């Protein structure tokens, strides 16, 4: 049976299982087994391929970075870092029109360098920033969109779980991915701030006038502004150590998790119950990601063994389309998939198929990983399954003034930021040096 026929069967079976409600990792394992069985006609070979691929995936040293950075983020949040960051940014920008919105973006950007999880940022800053925006009479849809949109920085600014997933699947240095994302992350942060500034000019009724500092804020200005310095130092040490070559991403995760634990001890003391819950939550999050990575690695090796990847590569490269056109088509496909699947699933499904083609076209794989992740992240704020939007909606309970808010309201408010995300991704496609300069000079 030809690889193309097997490829069609494999893709059809996978989609049928996913849309039937079967969990992604089970769907990938079943599809991998069925594909090898169809290719070889031998059950024992199919079973051996599954077992060897799974065992080989589990033993990869780089996977240790996932639980460590997840734990770092959860411990940092337990220490109150998110509130400290927001309070400092809001105070410094209080005299700026749209200052609370800009503070939300900046706090999200810094907090993203701790968590690496988009929905965590969306949930946390809904509780922290939204009451302040409501008090200052920001337009409700825009304030909701600001939180949902800026939360995508969690997957772009390192450390990011999506970068770890991509690096493991595409065999790309996770350290280089982390460093490569610094400039795009700053550009995206600036783009979101620019959105707020533009909206303030075009729709002045959306953003209220500035307010003056209270006597308490004047007296305690530097105390509030400097309060988040420990978490910022922790971020600089972990990412700076990777960039400078002092330690690997996995070692950086260990240092970051230990540093976050020390912050918890200094700020809150040793609360056995809270720390135990944090450890369990970090283990559950890491375990779900690792299981997905194992099944995706098995699927990738299955496609390669059956010759499916080579066949698809020859087909795409034979099209009369310039290489840049193929990249843009891939971006469009990823954005469409973002409307119906979660980010990790998209990355696990598309990386084995797209990356060999992109590599054959001569493109930098670190660069492609960054633009791929940004394209996928548009799905976090697009209907019908925008995870950030639904996270914000579920976090609105108990916040006064937002009782009648619908999911559509949040989607509408996020549109401004969706445009900015797409614009930044296109900029990085057209100017690759913005991504490649730092990792090439590590």
Automatic annotation (TrEMBL):
Domain TRAP C4-dicarboxylate transport system permease DctM subunit: from-to ranges: 12-432
PANTHER family: C4-DICARBOXYLATE TRAP TRANSPORTER LARGE PERMEASE PROTEIN DCTM, SIALIC ACID TRAP TRANSPORTER PERMEASE PROTEIN SIAT-RELATED
Compartment(s): Cell inner membrane
GO CC, alphabetical: plasma membrane
Topology in membrane: Multi-pass membrane protein
GO molecular function terms listed in the Swiss-Prot or TrEMBL record: transmembrane transporter activity
Ranges that cross the membrane: 61-80, 100-130, 142-166, 178-200, 221-243, 249-266, 278-299, 319-349, 361-381, 416-438
Entry-linked Pfam families: DctM
Keyword Cell inner membrane: yes
Keywords carried by this UniProt record: Cell inner membrane, Cell membrane, Membrane, Transmembrane, Transmembrane helix
Keyword Transmembrane helix: yes
Protein name: TRAP transporter, DctM subunit
The organism of origin for this protein: Sphaerochaeta pleomorpha (strain ATCC BAA-1885 / DSM 22778 / Grapes)
